[in-house]
Amino acid sequence: MSKFFKKLFGALSDKPWDKEQMATDNYHQGKTFDISNQTSAVIVIFGVSTVLFSLIITGYLYSIPTTQDTQYLLKPNLLWVNTLILLSVTYFFNKITKDLKKNIYEKIKKNLLIVGFLSYVFLFGQIFFWFQLMKDGNYVSTNNYFSSFYIFTALHGLHLLGGLFFWGKVFSKISKLEQKEITSHKKSIEALSLYWIFLLIVWTMFFLIMYVFNDTVIAWCRALLS
Amino acid sequence: MSDEYNQKNTPIKAQSSEITSSSSGSSKDIDYVRPAELPEQDLYHGHSFITKWIFCQDAKVIGVQYFLTAVFTGIVGLVLSWLMRLQLGFPELVPFITAEHYYQFVTMHGMIMVVYFLTALFLGGFGNYLIPLMVGARDMVFPYVNMVSFWMFFIAVCVLMASFFVPGGPTGAGWTLYPPQAILPGTPGSNMGIILMLVSLSLFVIGFTMGGLNYLITILQARTRGMTLMRMPLTIWGIFTATALAMLAFPALLVSCIMMTLDKMLGTSFFMPTIVQAGEVLSYGGGSPVLFQHLFWFFGHPEVYIVALPAFGIVSDLISVHARKNIFGYRMMVWAIVGIGALSFFVWAHHMYVSGMNPWFGFFFATTTLIIAVPTALKVYNWIITLFRANIRMNTVMLFCLGFIVTFVNGGITGIFLGNVAVDIPLSDTYFVIAHFHMVMGIAPLMVIMGAVYHWFPLVTGRMLSEKLGKWHFWFTFLGAYSIYFPMHYLGFIGVPRRYFEMYDSPYVTSAIGMNEFITVAALIVGFSQLIFIYNIVVSLSIGKPAGKNPWKANSLEWLTPEVPPAHGNWGEKLPVIHRWPYDFNVPGAKEDYITQTTPPSEVISAEVEKT
After folding, report:
1. Element (DSSP H or E) covering residue A82
2. Residue B463: helix, strand or coil by DSSP?
């Protein structure tokens, strides 16, 4: 991260009119960071989506009424399983990127397929959990906790669906290729892998704040607001 | 669509220029650039009318599409402002303008002008057209996504316009759309009108994110050889920083739109407190209307700079070219753009002084508001110093630049007044605020847009606009705009409240009626005088003087394409190679008064670069 800022902001001290600077600048290849466009895109989406999810959490924490009790907090159930599934997706992606680095192509197609399958399972698990909530009478309008819960999980799911769209495009191309030709899609796979890590981070933060440590967070917010 | 595109994909197989001479003592040594290491970009070239001009992936065509769509919405916004002014100047002259309609016009005018006109025009229009050309790229890095971005914008505009035709009409909640009144009965358009507005804004944000992704990555990762960040024109710095701001600020708008849509449609209470309406307790409860205000202004204030920063960048380049002088303090100008961008996220609550807040927060936001004036003032000084003892060409472009500086200083100074809590509270609900923000983010950016159109029209069309008509257009617009907004400061000082449909028997009627009539007449004249501009464009398209290559003798890359107007792919077979910054004007020892960015040092061996 410090390298990133150094590169971006360090450049701001250049004197482009200076003769010595001109000689240095003529060697510039025109690229700021040594990463692919796909990875750059994922990083930009990181930034945008982080703001989006942070604001939802902030909104939730901002509007906790002082009289709100926490009796509706959920007991361990399907959401833990879903979290483990998302964790395992990231594990498989990690294996894929490691294989790509070592030029081992045998298991990439299979692992990529598992990634897609598990991601869909996660999505179905989330929808199933919604139905469980509704069956228990906890709708989106029940209170601000559930409103925030539904909106966050929906947006996270949409992000995952977006990722699955690009996963589908990459996988359909790779599935037709010989093993060694997979290297031509290395950048796309690495970008996808990075995207899934981001999805896991977002989900973990949400899961901890709004689920596992919800009581503590609410108590802390109340103390802060009072 | 993508499959069809992929099948027909015919990439350009272009070679980058390479200078590999290494013989010592040769003048070519100083021209040496590293051979290209990055692969060429494959482009899809449209073959039919539809793929060339409608679903087109060429950023220049997309830029023009953005521009035309934004101008269309701007004209709608202009007509709405006329209707508002007719009511304010001559109440009940137009029978169909009821109080409900008036508030709907106010709301739609505000939202259209800020989001769908100015933002789309600066970033979508100028951004798309200029970024690849100015950084030496063939196109945006993701042309297909860029195309989808425009069509999302187009659908967003259609959804917004559709709200004029639904039962109840468009929302009349004011452009800030504050809940709870925005979604409760009694506010015009509180059913379909507000829903369509929220959906349209959400689509706009999603579409913009696709475009913004392209602008950022193209600028950071797809520049041509020799184009360092600090060799980029200030136009690109302005667009880059504004895009970064937009990418971080628009999510706040998206979140608030989604939450308010759910409040309206599914009965959630994100922004809705317990409400008793007509003696009946509504099902809402537990939400916070002030949360919406925070979210809205967390987007809303950076939005001012999303519009202003590209304008700052563009006007810097226009002044430099038409004053034949390097921009004074280039590095400071870049730092100021970046600094203003960063600070713009710490001033939002100065829009909420009247909402009530802890006095220390008010103090904090007043202080940050004053601090942000420092880099802004620095830019103004640098524009003026650039003009000092310059070889100024007093053409239409320069007139609009000077008009911008004057208007911006005017609007900026009143902004410093309003940044102070004690001054803001009595003035907040008066016409002083209207005058301030129209000066600083209405007329000032418009001056830059007009100047930029006169400047880059020859590049886009290959023909010059009429200078004579341009000067008429400028004076009508400039003097007319001042006739509208200068008196409004006075109206504000005497306490005329904004957002009032009619003053009825209040004392304001007698003291302000003449001035309101004058403002209305001026607004109509200024609006109609834009026909000169439209006429100039339409006529010049067919019979304008051929521009030829680089008619302004500018240095930046967009003027150095092999063809004018530039073809898809921009650069023919060879990508340009950059040897200098774009501000080498009147360099001592040079034969011409300009040295283009692609001119190698060996061709201007006696030129001594100025220190700045």
Report:
1. helix A78-101
2. strand
C-alpha span between B366 and B353 (Å, rounded): 10
Count of Cβ atoms closer than 10 Å to residue A178 Cβ:
7
Asked whether residue A73 carries a pLDDT value surpassing 80, the answer given is no
Strand-pairing partners, residue B344, are none
Work out the pLDDT band at B17, boundaries 50, 70, 90: very low
Query: Tokens 């309609």 appear where?
Result: B101
Chain A hits for B220, CB-CB cut-off 8 Å, are 31-33, 40
Please list, in sequence order, all residues whose beta carbon lies within 8 angstroms of the beta carbon of residue B523, skipping any fewer than 6 positions away. Answer: B81, B82, B85, B480, B484
Question: How far separated are the first and last CA of chain A, in Å rounded?
Answer: 36
Of the candidate CATH numbers 3.40.1230.10, 3.40.50.720, 1.20.1440.60, 1.20.120.80, the domain formed by A75-221 belongs to 1.20.120.80
pLDDT above 90 (res A38) = yes
Q: What is the DSSP letter of B343?
A: H
d(CA B326, CA B105): 44
Q: Report the C-alpha gap between B210 and B257 in whole angstroms.
A: 18
Helix (H), strand (E) at residue B276 = strand B276-277
Size of interface A-B (CB pairs under 8 A): 161
Nearest-5° Cα angle at B85, B80 to B88? 135
User: Does the pLDDT of residue B297 top 90, yes or no?
Assistant: yes
Q: What is the C-alpha to C-alpha distance for residues B352 and B291, in angstroms, rounded to an integer?
A: 11
**Phi-psi group of B49: left, alpha or beta (phi > 0 → left; psi -120 to 50 → alpha; rest → beta):** alpha
Q: How many Å lie between the alpha carbon of A3 and the closest alpha carbon of chain B?
A: 15
Place of tokens 């809402």: B284
- CA proximity to B88, closest of B96, B79, B97: B97
Please count the residues of chain A. 226
Q: How many Å lie between the alpha carbon of A129 and the closest alpha carbon of chain B? A: 19
B278 compared with B115, residue with greater pLDDT: B115
What pLDDT, in 10s, does the model give residues B433-488? 999 999 999 999 999 999 999 999 999 999 999 999 999 999 999 999 999 999 99
Which residues, in sequence order, are bridge partners of residue B128?
none
Mind giving me the DSSP string for B83-108? Answer: HHHHHHHSTTSSTT--HHHHHHHHHH
Q: According to the model, what pLDDT value does residue B19 have?
A: 34
- Reported as a single tens digit per residue, the pLDDT across B369-388 is 999 999 999 999 999 999 99
- Quote the CA–CA distance of B349 and B363 in Å, as a whole number: 10
Mean pLDDT computed over B228-245: 97
A54 Cβ contact partners less than 8 Å away, ≥ 6 residues apart: none
Do A28 and B266 lie within an 8 Å CB cutoff?
no
Question: How far B146 CA lies from chain A's nearest CA (Å)?
Answer: 13
Does the pLDDT value for residue A124 go beyond 50? Answer: yes
Burial class (CB within 10 angstroms; exposed 0-12, middle 13-18, buried 19+) of B500: middle
Mean pLDDT of chain B: 91
* Average pLDDT of the residues of chain A: 87
pLDDT at B350 > cutoff 70: yes
**Would you say residue B222 has pLDDT above 60?**
yes
Among A8, A9, A27, A37, most B C-beta atoms within 10 A, so best to mutate, is: A37
0.85 surpassed by complex ipTM? yes
Residue B15 has pLDDT above 50, yes or no: no
Token pair 């008429």 is at which residue?
B472
Task: Tell me the three-class secondary structure of B57-72, residue by residue.
Answer: CCHHHHHHHHHHHHHH
Lookup: tokens for B474: 């400028």
Structure-token pair, residue B114: 């800020």
Those residues whose C-beta lies under 8 Å from the C-beta of residue A168, and which sit 6 or more positions away, are A116
- Surface of B (155-214) touching A: CB under 8 A: 209, 212-213
pLDDT score recorded for residue B1: 36
